[in-house]
Amino acid sequence: MKIETYRGIVRIQRKSGRSAKFHDAKNMPLVRFESHKNPFLMLEQYCNSPECNCREVGLEFSEIDESGAPLANRIQFYFHLNLETWKENRKVKRSEICQRLVDEFINNLTDEIKNKFKGDYEHIKKKASRAAKFDMPLHEIKKGILIPYSEVFGDYGSVLSGGSGYSFDFEYQKEKYYVDDMYCLDPACKCNTAHLVFLKYDKETDVTSDLFTAKFDFEKGLEVEENPSIKKVDAIKIFNKWMESDNEVPDILKSRYRELKDISKGLVEKHGGHKKLPEDSLLLVSNEKIGRNSPCPCGSGKKFKKCCGMP
């Protein structure tokens, strides 16, 4: 058995009650079993309750054809792996083929894979603990207050609110730059935007100061706000250099947007804004790109862009 990185784009369905949204995932683990011809995409799921000490990872496997051809009888299976005993938790009845694949996966776990699962588990729990400590009055949430991601999940608070933390750093023309990202907390707002503050470090004075702000709309792209201290064309060059420094940045920003929206939903529920929200779950649905004018895979009969693919 080997675990590689799948270079294609995978569509992930995010379910909440009867509704569903889709987003693209990249660099997912691809598992090659010795006992099966086709490889399987693997989705890891961890409990994000800070009070729970389950010490397990949920692993969902979905068979793919690397040529891109659809599989008529795609094999999918799921199991909970105990991170202490490295055995299956809560065993269930499954087909002989699926059970064989589960056993092969568990019997071929390396120390590297085990350490990776443990590290991811601790990371998720740490973030869950920080998120649980974050609070904000309901009236401020509904105002669409912008909150820095580093303020919620960082160790030192955001530089934008008096702390010393930030989300990203990069170099451009031998100068050091920092970026902190903020998001609207109103769960009813569908802005799909990351608000960005770019800061520049001055080596001579050892001072980091605001340089410019921008909005990065996940559909429409960048909008740089007017600033007398820098030309818009230069700000765009700095932004593009940041994007070039890490091609995962757009996906990271989208993921953070969803994370903070989930937190805001929890806060609205906590403060009695509306009835209890159903928990979200992730389901691997396809490794094929869905066109905006294609029928929505949820079965509604509508076009994807008018249904689950709506921004």
Count of distinct strands: 15
What share of the residues does DSSP label as strand, in percent? 25-35%
**What is the end-to-end distance?**
39 Å
Give the rounded overall mean pLDDT.
84
Strand order of the largest sheet: 1-4-5-6-7-8
Q: Rounded to an integer, what's the Rg over CA atoms?
A: 22 Å
Count of discrete domains: 2
How many helices? The count is 6
Helicity range: 25-40%
What order do the SSEs take from the amino end to the carboxyl end, as H and E? EEEEEEEEHHHEHEEEEEHHE
pLDDT < 50 stretches: 274-285
Structural class: alpha+beta
Shape estimate: globular
Sheet having the most strands: 6 strands, antiparallel
Could you describe the 3D structure shown?
It holds the Pfam family SEC-C. InterPro entries: SEC_C_motif (IPR004027). This is SEC-C motif domain protein. The chain has 311 residues and is α+β, with helices and mostly antiparallel strands. The chain has 2 domains: 2-130, no CATH class; 139-272, no CATH class. Helix content is 26%, strand content 31%. The protein has a 6-stranded antiparallel beta sheet, covered by helices on one side. Strands 9, 10, 11, 12, 13 and 14 form a 6-stranded antiparallel beta sheet that branches. The chain starts with a strand and ends in a 25-residue tail after the last strand. Residues 274-285 have low confidence and may be disordered.
